[in-house]
Amino acid sequence: MSSGPAVPAPIVTTPVTPTPVTTLPTGSTLVLGPPEIARALTRIAHEILERNKGGSELVLLGIPTRGLPLAVRLAARLAAVEPGLDAADLVGSLDVTMHRDDLRHHPTRTIGATQLPSSGIDGKVVVLVDDVLYSGRTIRAALDAISDLGRPRAVQLAALVDRGHRELPIRADYVGKNLPTSHHERVRVLLTETDGQDAVLISDPSATGPATTDAGAR
After folding, report:
1. What burial letters (b/e) apply to 5-22, b meaning 16+ CB within 10 Å?
2. Rounded to whole angstroms, how far apart are CA atoms 202 and 194?
3. Which of 179, 58, 53 is nearest to 123 (CA)?
4. Would strands 114-116 and 125-133 be described as parallel, antiparallel, or unpaired?
5. 67 near 51, Cβ under 8 Å?
6. Where are the alpha helices (DSSP H) in 111-210?
7. How many whole angstroms from its chain centre is CA 41?
8. What backbone phi and psi angles, to 5 degrees, belong to 159?
9. CA–CA distance, 27 with 154 (Å, rounded to integer)
10. Bridge partner list, 181
11. Which residues contact 123 (CB under 8 A, 6 or more apart)?
12. What is the separation of C-alpha 69 from the centre of its chain, rounded to a whole number of angstroms?
């Protein structure tokens, strides 16, 4: 299956100033605000550089929707720490739609574009970046999508939130926040680039209103 066209194209890496949390949806509890998210991403960036002895062989692939802006932010932090790195050359986007195992239940999913750095992924250390790690099924789809695009030297995983309840033997290498949850709770990630503010929320299932991120499908 194809995960969408792989287009060598630059990802916009303009720095983003997180917006303070103004209002919370009904039934939601704030877990992380802008300062906590910023510190978590800074820590993850340093852990990535330390583990891989630098960033010269790294590629960050964000999983849309919110994994992509997180990858952009991480790339900017890596470039700020290590002289010579170009954030735009580090980051790409990986659409996993056609590799998901729930397509028959959600046949109307929109297929996105996969954009790789100009250097590709062959022989690179690919760091998948996503907002919420839950069942592990999105990451399994991402691994299948990567196999269509090239042969990286290694694949690692960075997640802003790990809420547990894994259904597959998948573990994050870098985690911003381990967040114990029950199955019926909903974890929502808001980012300035997509939602106008930075926040991680736990929502009561009885709360009304559309979900920004439904981690139950991950």
Report:
1. ebeeeebebeeeebeeee
2. 18
3. 58
4. unpaired
5. no
6. 137-147, 192-195
7. 11
8. -130, 135
9. 41
10. none
11. 57, 151, 152, 153
12. 8
- Domains belonging to the chain, first-starting first, are 33-183 (3.40.50.2020)
Which contiguous run of DSSP H or E holds residue 8? Answer: strand 6-8
Q: With left for phi above 0 and alpha for psi between -120 and 50, is residue 73 left, alpha or beta? A: alpha
79-85: which pairs have CB atoms within 8 A and are 24 or more residues apart? 79/55, 81/45, 81/46, 81/49, 82/49, 82/54, 82/55, 84/56, 85/55, 85/56
Q: Say which residue the tokens 């033997």 belong to.
A: 169
pLDDT in tens, 114-165: 999 999 999 999 999 999 999 999 999 999 999 999 999 999 999 999 999 9
For residue 70, the SS3 value is helix
Q: With 90 as the cut, is the pLDDT of residue 40 above it?
A: yes
- Are 200 and 160 within 8 A, CB to CB? yes
Question: What's the predicted TM-score (pTM) here?
Answer: 0.85
Residues 161 and 176: beta-carbon distance below 8 Å: yes
Look up tokens 């709770």; give the residue. 185
Beta bridge partners of 187: 202
